[in-house]
Design brief:
It is a single chain. Helices cover 77% and strands 0% of the residues. With 154 residues, it is mainly alpha-helical. It is elongated and about 75 Å long. The two termini are 30 Å apart. The mean pLDDT is 82.
């Protein structure tokens, strides 16, 4: 038997490794919430919390019911997806996203705008902070789950 026929050429091995990496990344991404859901969550959060302190308190608490359609969407979406395995440890970037989100929430609670222009600015600021934090947390969860899966495979 020819020894060259036993080992695949280097470029074939690289292509197979690239396909395996792409398949594992796609599998992990499929278990995470879609970006459209994260954007809807950020828009709803920014809309509700930009009106905090502006509208009547009872009406503001009732506006929290706008999260219910998102909850139903997430439950319906997650039923059809494989259950995601939680990451065993989170990276520093993930924790930075968590602290960014907490800081944005506190900033939103302390800032009570007086004009519609300031309400729009608060909305844009909250939306930018929350979207950034959610994207960082999603990306780092995917990365750590792939890394954890690769470490368990070896």
């Amino acid at each position: 038997m020819n020894p060259a026929s036993q080992n695949p050429p280097t470029h074939d091995a690289q292509a197979l490794l690239a396909q395996a990496e792409e398949a594992s990344t796609a599998s992990v991404r499929a278990t995470e919430p879609p970006l459209g859901f994260l954007l809807s969550l950020a828009l709803t959060y920014a809309g509700i919390f930009s009106l905090h302190g502006i509208i009547n308190s009872a009406l503001w608490y009732w506006s929290l019911l706008l999260f219910l359609p998102l909850l139903v969407w997430y439950i319906y979406w997650s039923r059809k997806r494989p259950k995601s395995r939680p990451a065993l440890k989170h990276s520093g970037k993930y924790m930075l996203g968590v602290f960014l989100m907490i800081g944005g929430m506190q900033f939103g609670n302390f800032w009570i705008p007086q004009t519609w222009l300031l309400i729009a600015l608060k909305f844009m600021a909250l939306f930018a902070v929350l979207t950034t934090a959610l994207w960082v947390m999603r990306r780092e969860t995917i990365t750590s789950r792939i890394k954890d899966g690769n470490e368990q495979a070896s």
